[in-house]
TrEMBL record:
Record-linked Pfam families: Glyoxalase
The name this protein goes by in its record: Extradiol dioxygenase
InterPro entries the record matches: Glyas_Bleomycin-R_OHBP_Dase, Glyas_Fos-R_dOase_dom, VOC_core
Start and end residues of each VOC domain: 9-135
Organism: Idiomarina xiamenensis 10-D-4
SUPFAM superfamilies per record: Glyoxalase/Bleomycin resistance protein/Dihydroxybiphenyl dioxygenase
Length: 145
C-alpha cells in the first residue's frame, strides 16, 4: 500500500473523557469544533474534517507516558492534526491567551532541517494529550533527516 493518496480520507478517533460538559467546553468552545451526533455517553466532533469522538469513560481518561524528543518529555499517546502554517500560528496565539497549560510551548523544531515544523502540546480537561503541528512546506511531512 502506498502512502500517497489523491485525496486524504478522514480518520476516526475515539478517546476517553471523564466529563462530557468539560469536553464540550474544551473542544466546542475553546477549540471551536462543530459538534455532531451525541448521547449521554459520547459526542462526535468535526476535528478539522475528521471524525473525533469523546466517550465518557472516566476510568480510562488521561493515562499517559512520556518519550524524550528534542529535550522535551513528549506525552504518549497523543493525537492532533497538521494545520496550515497560518492556521497553526493563529491557534497558538489564541491558546496563549486561553486557560491552557502547555506541556510543550509552541515552537519550531528541526529548524533548517528536513521536516522543519511548528508544534505545541497540551492536555484536554480529561488529560488526553494533543499535538498540533504545521509545516511551511507540507511536502516535508514525511521527510527524513
Amino acid at each position: 500500500m502506498t502512502t500517497e493518496h489523491a485525496a486524504l480520507q478522514p480518520f476516526h478517533l475515539a478517546v476517553a473523557v471523564d466529563c462530557l460538559h468539560k469536553a464540550r467546553e474544551f473542544y466546542g468552545q475553546l477549540l471551536g469544533l462543530s459538534e455532531g451526533r451525541s448521547s449521554d455517553h459520547w459526542i462526535d466532533w468535526d476535528f478539522w474534517g475528521h471524525q473525533f469522538v469523546t466517550h465518557l469513560a472516566p476510568e480510562l481518561a488521561g493515562q499517559l507516558q512520556h518519550n524524550q524528543v528534542d529535550d522535551h518529555a513528549v506525552p504518549v499517546p497523543h493525537f492532533g492534526v497538521v494545520l496550515s502554517w497560518q492556521d497553526w500560528h493563529q491557534l497558538a496565539d489564541r491558546l496563549r491567551h486561553a486557560p491552557i497549560k502547555f506541556v510543550i510551548e509552541p515552537y519550531i523544531r528541526f529548524r533548517g532541517l528536513p521536516g522543519e515544523q511548528a508544534t505545541m502540546f497540551f492536555h484536554d480537561p480529561a488529560g488526553n494529550a494533543l499535538e498540533f503541528k504545521a509545516f511551511q512546506d507540507p511536502a516535508q511531512l514525511f521527510a527524513k533527516q
